[in-house]
């Protein structure tokens, strides 16, 4: 049995096939799967910072739904950094960091959050506080949603 191409491969394949038939390269914009893909492409063309540029991520516990290695690779590909120790919100060094998250909503308090504790969305873990100064806790699906939309989304 032949399987269907993934949602990210299908638009690319259609663009290549159309380009081959026409004998000229088709515009990429017509085949973008979502707004996040367009934002990511424009971001790269304008040489803006990567999605997670200036952000640090700590992965808490075990991950079943999304592999922690896959999540870490997404973070690194997006310009983010992996922390080996859990960040502490009451740490003076943490609170004096003045880095601004470029891809967060500029008017939100999230633009000043650059450290995230990511936990498995399917786990029973329930953080006491989601926002603790410049350290926020978010489920793994939040990270995936950020990548898909190419923006730092609010943590709910």
TrEMBL record:
Keywords for this protein: ANK repeat, Repeat
Keyword match Repeat: yes
Biological process, per Gene Ontology: protein K6-linked ubiquitination
GO molecular function: ubiquitin-protein transferase activity
Endpoints of the signal sequence: none
UniProt xrefs under InterPro entries: BRCT_dom, BRCT_dom_sf
Domain called BRCT: residue spans: 47-156
Keyword Repeat on entry: yes
GO CC, alphabetical: BRCA1-A complex; BRCA1-BARD1 complex
Region (Disordered): 1-25
UniProt-recorded name of the protein: BRCT domain-containing protein
């Amino acid at each position: 049995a032949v399987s269907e191409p993934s949602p990210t491969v299908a638009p690319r394949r259609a663009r290549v096939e159309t380009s081959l038939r026409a004998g000229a390269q088709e515009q990429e914009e017509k085949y973008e799967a979502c707004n996040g893909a367009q934002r990511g492409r424009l971001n790269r063309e304008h040489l803006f910072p990567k999605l997670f540029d200036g952000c640090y991520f700590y992965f808490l516990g075990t991950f079943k739904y999304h592999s922690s290695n896959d999540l870490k690779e997404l973070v690194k590909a997006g310009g983010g950094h992996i922390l080996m120790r859990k960040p502490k919100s009451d740490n003076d060094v943490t609170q004096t960091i003045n880095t601004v998250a470029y891809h967060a909503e500029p008017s939100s308090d999230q633009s000043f959050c650059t450290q995230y504790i990511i936990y498995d969305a399917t786990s029973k873990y329930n953080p006491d506080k989601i926002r603790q100064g410049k350290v926020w806790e978010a489920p793994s699906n939040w990270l995936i949603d950020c990548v898909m939309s190419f923006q730092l989304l609010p943590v709910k």
